[in-house]
Amino acid sequence: MPPVTPLASMIDHTLLKAEATRAQIEKLCAEAKQFNFATVCVNPFRVAMSAEILKGSNVKVCTVIGFPLGANRAEVKALETVRACADGAGEIDMVINIGALKDGNLAAVENDISSVVKAAQGRTVKVILETALLTDDEIRSACAVAVIAGADFVKTSTGFGSGGATVHHVRLMAEAVAGKAEVKASGGIRDRETMTAMVEAGATRIGTSNGVAIMGAAGSIKGDY
To answer: Could you give the domains of the chain?
Structure first.
């Protein structure tokens, strides 16, 4: 079994494209085992398959809930989560109810998140904010609610929205959660330089489909993350 390195242990090796094939998911899992990434992040239909491939390894299966719009009802997200966990998911990345947040309906947002947290039964839950659609004040509010609802992480983006992770948003989120949750940066992180910037801003997990390329550059850039 390959050693777990600080850099690899921060990466969620991701393939969420609708057209992803079985062969591509198999390759994703093989790469994750090779580099000992934290997780593979796949759509719910691919969770059971990925869990079987990764059995016996250190790599967990992460999946997405309410993806990519976040507009599902809370009970639907909870049901998705229950099934994903039964299929072998060890981590859950859920999309926040963005519209409710922008309405200022924080009670609905809290219920949305807490429903998934309860359904996950102790598994790691990351809350995707889709920061490109939010004001700084909305991001602060979303982070506060995520902490109250028991989430483990707040996450920047789905990768399918109008923008991805930025250093500004990662730093803002890290300040907002104040150590009560962690921050995952995702969306547009394609090289080691960008990953380093996100980590320095406060991210402790990185979602990227370019993990292999980033690992290949690990020896060429100073710093060890």
So the answer is: 8-217 (3.20.20.70)
